[in-house]
Specification:
Order of helices and strands: EHEHEEHEEHHHHEHHEEH
Strand order of the largest sheet: 3-7-5-8
Radius of gyration: 18 Å
Helix content: 25-40%
Largest sheet: 4 strands, mixed
Distance between the termini: 39 Å
Number of helices: 10
Structural class: alpha/beta
Length: 245
């Protein structure tokens, strides 16, 4: 609601939330161009619901983020600014500690305090090199995007790609549960010849801390094996994606 560049459409990929969430989305649908893509709760099925959202999208460019991430006002504007054919954009997140995450209010977000380093420090945020992500100085952000050693991967919390490219790789691999399925999408985009741009210091989201009961060793190990095979084989289209091959 407070973006400098408003979204043409907002697809909420809802992996089995209940009635309270449905009513909340319905209320916001009156003022925002929301499409609520939902299926029944059947465990952690993020890949499946994201594929349904991609299939339902009509826009030619897709920006992805997560429900635990709060975007700075220029988030969409930044992705649009750097979008280029033949590329995906790779952003990151700034993780807030649990106490600040729980205390954050809507007014903190609307006013911009949630992204203000001085204010966050007054709330108890510790000193870290990662705090440089919140400097909000354009020349500094561009320099850090260039020199950072972090790889420009496809990160579901903050990434974007052309819809035609996402369809060309058949979306997400639905064999994958929690742990790295977004990265695997990026690896197949790379296999197809798509390059990446680093915008982790320009496209800012703050990440709210929370527990992850769906995180299991088995799912992470399985997904790591799938990703290794994706890189080894050079596969572009997953057979268990938007279309079942």
């Amino acid at each position: 609601m407070h973006q400098t560049h408003m979204a043409d459409e907002i697809l909420i990929a809802d992996d089995g939330s209940g009635e309270e969430t449905r009513l909340l989305i319905e209320r916001f649908s009156k003022i925002l161009p929301i499409k609520h893509i939902w299926h029944e709760d059947n465990g952690f099925q993020k890949s499946t619901i994201l594929n349904k959202a991609i299939a339902a999208a009509t826009a030619d460019y897709l920006i992805t983020t997560d429900q635990d991430c709060v975007p700075r006002r220029d988030f969409i504007e930044t992705h649009v600014k750097y979008a280029e054919k033949g590329y995906l954009l790779s952003g990151g997140y700034f993780k807030l500690p649990m106490d600040i995450s729980l205390a954050l209010t809507e007014d903190d977000i609307v006013s911009g305090r949630a992204f203000d380093l001085k204010w966050l420090r007054s709330q108890g945020l510790g000193i870290s090199f990662k705090n440089t992500k919140l400097f909000n100085i354009d020349w500094f952000a561009r320099m850090m995007n260039t020199i950072t050693t972090a790889k420009a991967t496809y990160n579901g919390c903050n990434a974007s790609a052309w819809r035609e490219d996402m369809l060309a790789i058949n979306g997400y691999n639905e064999d994958m549960q929690y742990g790295g399925q977004d990265r695997e999408v990026g690896e197949r985009l790379f296999n197809m010849g798509i390059k990446s741009k680093q915008i982790r210091y320009s496209a800012i989201v703050v990440h709210l801390d929370h527990k992850r009961p769906y995180k299991t060793r088995e799912s992470i190990e399985k997904n790591r094996a799938i990703r290794r095979e994706t890189r080894r084989s050079g596969i572009v289209k997953t057979p268990n994606g938007i279309v079942k091959l």
